[in-house]
Amino acid sequence: MALQDYETALVTGASSGIGAAVVRALCAAGKKVHAVARRQDRLDALAAETGCIPHVLDLRDQAALYDTLGALDVDILINNAGLGRGFEDFTTTPAADIDVTIQVNVLAALHVVRACVGGMKERQRGHIFNIGSVAGLYPVNSAVYGASKGAVHLMSQNLRVELAGTGIRVTEICPGRIETEFFETAFDDDEAKAKFTKGFNIMQPEDISDAIMYAADAPWRVNVGLIEMTPTEQYLGGGNITPVPGR
Ligand SMILES: NC(=O)c1ccc[n+]([C@@H]2O[C@H](COP(=O)([O-])OP(=O)(O)OC[C@H]3O[C@@H](n4cnc5c(N)ncnc54)[C@H](OP(=O)(O)O)[C@@H]3O)[C@@H](O)[C@H]2O)c1
Fold first, then answer.
1. What does pTM read for this prediction?
2. Among 4-18, 62-76, 196-210, 229-243, where is mean pLDDT lowest?
3. In the chain, what are the domains?
4. Is 54 a pocket residue for ligand 1 (Cβ < 6 Å)?
5. What's the gap between Cα 34 and its chain centre?
6. What's the gap in Å between 124 CA and the centre of ligand 1?
7. Is 138 among the catalytic positions?
8. What is the rounded average pLDDT of the residues 29-57?
């Protein structure tokens, strides 16, 4: 059971960035691909380009999520839709930013898996990809985003345990910075956005879809559990010291 044995795929967050790149790669590999996001114009353009099947859906609408996704047979799930807020200062992060980050990155991600995994079990065929982040593995600079991606990390680890014996594979992808619309959503001003995206060779969405296709195409005996990937010029950790004023 490798890529050639899977027939259908579902990609959430397909209207831009990583999601759109994975839709292109899966369609090119001959899969029937369901593409989910809120922006219809983007999905329609992607459908015209690739032949994917668009589903306009706000994943925060739980009833609509189960109605739409529960009706699909999904072999490969790319659980990708997400956003980051709260990178500036936790004390001033609007409450609504905390809520939307958790609603999409955690709650919707859990319900998307739940909507698809029953059918995978019945067909004894499935591969779940959860798009986490290095922010789910290491401290970065958003308690909100880090909390959401930390949850994705442990969801992935625990799914491996809960799905033991079903034949369903689970892969978590933990990227560093990628040039996508993520940073348009994350920051309200261009200067803050530029600090995160300029001055180094940032990864491209296709770098992530390449990694996903590698894990999907590994022989069935292999479960690629976690892929951590950063730009060569981005590293995590380090010995920065910030003195506390007055001490
Ligand atoms: N870019 C990075 O540096 C980076 C690094 C690590 C991890 N990630 C993760 O990678 C994933 C994909 O992000 P990206 O970088 O490709 O950013 P992106 O280009 O902004 O894509 C985010 C996708 O999520 C969809 N989405 C957001 N809220 C949604 C909702 N309520 N319902 C349905 N779809 C929703 C968006 O579509 P609509 O707006 O059309 O709904 C869009 O297609 C996210 O989980 C992100 O946390 C990104």
1. 0.97
2. 229-243
3. 3-229 (3.40.50.720)
4. no
5. 15
6. 29
7. no
8. 98
